[in-house]
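Sample 3 of the quickstart, ligand flavin-adenine dinucleotide:
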Amino acid sequence: MSTTTWASKSLAGWGRYPIVDTLCARPESQSQTLKAFHDRQGDALLAHGFGRSYGDAALLSQGRVVLTRRLKKMLEFDEASGLLRVEAGVTIGELIEVFLPRGWFVPVVPGTQFVSMGGAIGCNIHGKNHGHAGCFGDHVRSMEMLLASGEVVRCSREEHEDLFWATIGGMGLTGIILNAEIQLQAVESGAIEMESIRFNNLDEFFQISAESSDYFHTVSWIDCVKSGAQMGRGIFMRGRHASAAQARTLSEGPLERVVELAQRVLDGRAFESNVLLNRATIRLFNEAYYHKHPAGEHHSVVGYEPFFFPLDAVENWNYVYGKRGFLQYQMVVPEREAVRDILKVISESKMASFLAVIKEFGDQDHGGLSFPCGGTTLALDFPNFGEPLLTMMDRLDELVAEVGGRVYLGKDSRLSAEMFRRMYPTWERWREVRDRWDPQGVFQSDLSRRLGLTPA
Amino acid sequence: MTVLILGATSPIAQAVADVYAAAGFSVALAARDVEEAGRAARDLQIRHGVEARGFAFDACEDFERHAALVSEVEATLGPVDVALVAFGFMGDQQASEEDFEKARRVIEVNYTGAVSVCEAVARAMESRGAGSIIGLSSVAGERGRASNYFYGSAKGALTLYLQGLRSRLASKNVHVMTVKLGFVDTPMTFELETGIPVASPQKAAQAIFNAQGRGVETFYYPRFWGGIMGVIKSIPEKVFKRLSL
Ligand SMILES: Cc1cc2nc3c(=O)[nH]c(=O)nc-3n(C[C@H](O)[C@H](O)[C@H](O)COP(=O)(O)OP(=O)(O)OC[C@H]3O[C@@H](n4cnc5c(N)ncnc54)[C@H](O)[C@@H]3O)c2cc1C
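Result:
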């Protein structure tokens, strides 16, 4: 067989900051993936799924990147138990498309369906149901991985348990996941029976959140432009998979209306004139979004797409931020007061975030480099305002670390190594395992170098 | 209904297999890498609930085995209604100029091997008076170019062969379709830096499926390649030689 083709490509995460040129291979099969590993000529290597992590988690500027998106074969499925083995490049969306008609759903999904299973494991992603279902990795039974030694090894909770643990949320640094076995969740329908509630401030948010524990999925949007008494106003959404009977009553809810508004604003093509997002347009949007939603509670039965993946209807909405790209700041803090402090810093900074998302995680802390732990998480998208933004984010880091919180590595492109160590106290244990399986640091990323997780 | 895919591990072949499986066809995946063909078959079974199986097939080794393969496929999955010749080998022009064995491989995979297996399929279909043969040729086969004339000439010969086969089988109710592919997003084009749009294998597959269903005889995909080739073919030889294409 011929040798691997390495082509120089510009790669970036979803935030389009930073953008780097790297030698990439795109294997079409498991055997070509092994081939690429052997043809890397001693360079460092990294798996790259769909680049839906925001920053540099899937980037490697000095080294080679293996694009895993063509590894998408489904290998085993048990109709009775919903246990499935698929290659790592299969997307969450594809899994839903194939298995929802048979009564199975993906147990944990992020805010977009265009992510690979490998990426979902690499970042140990969380969904709107963390309190009930944990993270994606909790539903993984076993994985087959290509390791730094060149061997292909299967790991699970029983077999090479340390490798299994370090790979879930391991940011691609323990090897390339070739395929994995996951447990799907039985559902009666793909529809979501949901309630949306407008809230006027953070206190109301926490109150509704506390009353929503029997809803499987919860998420809220908040307006982070507002300050004072209206600080933290927003819309709370909670839902559960609808029964087959309820699914027949699918309706147009307020969610569709706000989704439609977001789509219009975010549609990159509407921005030909370069009227990019700035504080004024973001403020207008936040105002409109809030008021589009009727006051009080609203019941509806909606499709899974607007509920889970509201922005997927707008292709490449990340381009509305223009050439400079944007940065997401997602953190979790175990203390409510800290959320208020953080929102205050943001609203005072005059650097607005478009579409801030807030939710409460369950108590589970997954360890290693995994992000979720008990507390409140806030995700903010900032246009790349440059230095002032970075300075403010450093300030936020302080507030977050102070109360024992952390920043999500899957969305980061600027956290310092020192801060990282304060936020992730279990990193050393993770590093020990990684060093055992990859002593030379074959697998690296720009993120891992920045955070001191692999040799520079 | 059964579709036989020859050279089943390429992205276009797999995308075509997927479209036919979605339409309810049983699928025979024939490839050199049988293990990978078997994985691909498993994938189709899970996704579409159809019968699918991998078969060992080499375009150039053992031409005698080609007829046996067709019989084996028909014995396990039923008569082949549609056969797709999807394999091809670009080779390296420079290396082929220096070493005829390399050139020969390009010619044999793209032409001799394709003809051998098409004949085997044609005989089976002819005797039943039904079926459809799809050959993946290339726009590279439209005009000899300094930069890839081994590959181009073999594909050009394949185009002519398919044309002849079409005439022969027309009265036997067997449809023969020639697909001339431009840039599709496959390993062959992965490296390419071009201003010309590259089509996804999925879109190409859907177009092939639709065209086969309508009984189309020759078509370009993406369509605009028909226009481009029209222009390229009309350039006088004297001028063409000087263009470094
Ligand atoms: C609109 C939007 C909404 C989002 N919402 C959420 C959310 O709600 N919750 C959440 O947790 N995340 C969310 N994310 C982030 C996203 O889910 C993760 O970044 C996910 O990992 C992206 O998957 P990917 O296939 O694009 O992976 P990439 O971004 O390509 O890679 C992510 C990491 O996984 C590693 N990796 C990828 N494939 C493999 C493999 N085969 N083997 C080993 N390592 C691998 C990479 O090396 C990298 O470290 C969101 C992202 C977007 C764009």
